[in-house]
Amino acid sequence: MKLTDALEEKFNDQITLEFEASLVYRQLAIEMEIRDLPGIAAWLRHQADEEIVHANKWIDHLSDRDNHPKIGASAAPKVDVTTVLDVFEVALEHERRVSDSIRDLYRAANEDIDSKSLIQWFVNEQVEEEATVSEIVGRLKLIDGDGPGLLRLDEELGSRPTRTTEA
């Protein structure tokens, strides 16, 4: 069953937002790379890749339903960070923006039974994403700029298994 034009537009907006999230995470990774925190940079790159996987899920759903997936215009991410805490606060803010958009899409697709399972998957995923980033923010506040604590967190986050954007 094909989506309505209005719902297709909302799905396409979500696709664009997922790609924007990927760019934000990639820029944050760059910020950590130049500060010699390779583990945190790797974690952020993994998040960037995961956002592309998310965009692909939305794209596949639209394609499978004979709709036309489109990536909208995106500006380069405006990331202004000076500390690792800043990095994760930016990440958390963006995750919350994505969550709000998915909730809006959930409400808009209320009558579209064929989209419910996909959107519910994303609702659950965003709860997990926000919790993970929020926990890192909390830990960074506990570390409070302590070098050894920051290096330990860098090592821990760098141990995350990697996947590709086709996962």
From TrEMBL:
Positions annotated to bind Fe cation: 18, 51, 54, 95, 126
Gene3D superfamilies: 1.20.1260.10
Organism annotation: Tsukamurella pseudospumae
GO BP term (any one): iron ion transport
Annotated PANTHER family: BACTERIAL NON-HEME FERRITIN, FERRITIN
Cellular component per GO, a single term: cytosol
Top-rank taxon, per record: Bacteria
A UniProt-annotated Pfam family: Ferritin
Keyword flag Zinc-finger: no
Domain Ferritin-like diiron: 1-144
GO molecular function, one term: ferroxidase activity
Annotated protein name in UniProt: Ferritin
UniProt keyword list: Iron, Iron storage, Metal-binding, Oxidoreductase
